[in-house]
Design goal:
The N and C termini lie far apart (49 Å). Helix content is 47%, strand content 12%. It is elongated. The chain has helices at residues 7-20, 25-32, 36-43, 51-60, 65-78, 93-104, 123-131, 139-152, 180-193, 246-262, 266-278; strands spanning 107-112, 163-169, 199-204, 218-222, 231-236, 239-243. The protein has a six-stranded mixed beta sheet with strand order 3-2-1-4-5-6, with helices on both faces. With 281 residues, it is α/β, with parallel strands linked by helices.
Length: 281
């Protein structure tokens, strides 16, 4: 299956399918002089659409002017060559889609039980994580994934930057990914990152015990009002999974809010990170 260049193309396809309503795809395509497969590829985000073709399609659907303007903007965004294009061959399709979401998000809330989140990793820590990954053996693939992970971090430098809130299980501070020295330098970076505007790092201490988010790590991505609904993303050994249903997202939101309430304060979290790093000297 072809990969969408961004969520914009997927949103456009979904909107066009909704506008088609009960009309048969074959009838719409025939009226426009297209093949049915062309319309199908556009609706499933397997291919983009030119402004001319989009205008003809929207005219056939009698779309309102404000709808036409919004969908034209989506089509143009979907044709943009995204920055991670050179790295696509080294990552699976779901990760490609996650990068598009991450690039567009206004706020991100992450719960991590095992490792420091990718947006806050040092290059040596990231390399150790990637090399330990299941099914990653080719040195060139490892290097491309490392370069991609480091490039992702520039999302925190855009203007305005997204809000990033991270809750870490205390175990993350003790897992010696790459060895004690790599971990010590990673904890120093983590402490420094927690002082940046719009970045909050919280630690959930061992003393909390059991909690609702024990089964998995996850990220909740929020977007500009009116652009799209929130998305929950989690990863497994075979790729990422997205949850879009309102009820599912609400369950994760409630679990994440509970984690934030039970975690140490930002200052106490920073102090614990520093103490843990100092003990590695």
């Amino acid at each position: 299956m072809a990969r969408p260049t961004s969520t914009a193309r997927q949103e456009l396809g979904d909107e066009l399918r909704r506008l088609r309503g009960d009309r048969r795809g074959a009838a719409v395509a025939r009226a426009l002089g297209w093949s049915e497969s062309k319309l199908s590829r556009i609706e499933t985000a397997r291919t983009g659409i030119s402004d001319t073709d989009l205008d003809r399609l929207l005219a056939a659907y009698a779309a309102r002017p404000e709808v036409r303007t919004r969908l034209r903007n989506l089509a143009r965004r979907g044709r943009v060559r995204v920055w991670w294009t050179p790295y696509r061959s080294s990552v699976p399709d779901p990760y490609d889609e996650y990068l598009a979401l991450e690039a567009e998000a206004e706020a991100m809330g992450e719960w991590e039980t095992q490792i420091v989140p990718g947006l806050l990793q040092t290059d040596e820590y990231a390399l150790a994580v990637i090399q330990a990954g299941a099914g990653v053996r080719d040195p060139q693939t490892v290097q491309r994934r490392l370069a991609l992970r480091m490039a992702r971090q520039t999302v925190l430098l855009r203007e305005p930057p997204p809000e990033l809130t991270v809750v870490l299980d205390e175990a993350v501070l003790h897992r010696e990914v790459g060895g004690p020295e790599v971990l010590r330098r990673q904890l120093q970076r983590l402490s420094e990152a927690s002082l940046r505007p719009k970045v909050e790092v919280l630690v959930l201490p061992f003393s909390v015990g059991a909690h609702a988010a024990l089964p998995e790590s996850f990220m909740i991505l929020e977007f500009a009002p009116g652009s799209r609904g929130p998305v929950v993303h989690s990863e497994s050994l075979t790729g990422g999974q997205f949850r879009l249903k309102r009820d599912d997202v609400q369950i994760y939101r409630e679990a994440y809010d509970d984690l934030r309430r039970r975690a140490l304060s930002p200052d106490d979290s920073r102090a614990l990170i520093a103490r843990t790093g100092d003990a590695l000297r």
